[in-house]
Amino acid sequence: MGGVVPMRIVSEMRTDPKYIVEHLFEGVIPDFHKLCRPGDLVVTGRNFGMGAKMQGYIAMKALGLGLVCESMSFLAYREAIGIGLPVLTGCKEISSACQQGDELSVDFQTGVCSNITQKREYQFEPVPLALQDVLSSGGTTAWLNQWWQQKKANLQNA
User: Fold this and answer.
1) How far apart are the C-alpha atoms of 2 and 158, rounded to whole Å?
2) pTM for this predicted structure
């Protein structure tokens, strides 16, 4: 069974999304990157992202995907947010509430997850307010760049 991306991608330390996206979930769903579209959601069970995961998060963000997990480690969550990948975790039993191909909608700011196909709605903990700014900026690096530019502008105007 495959993982998020093949280990060779991780060991080669690839970070260019143009190279990584074609390998996203290839061991589980061949040509996954051709089947998904921006706004689609990856729904996972417990302990998602236990191994090497950064390249997978880079590919998911590049494809415009979101991530909804029953659980993931704090480090995996922090890395996903740091990349700028929208993610909800702590979504108890979400993997059994969805089938592959169901049309889903998630509001990461409110934690509302709608399974449009099954006409069901779930309420989960939203992305914390402090992290919503990081996500809307595109990740930690982009957020820090914006912060620094604002700081410089404030110093120049003082």
Assistant:
1) 55
2) 0.88
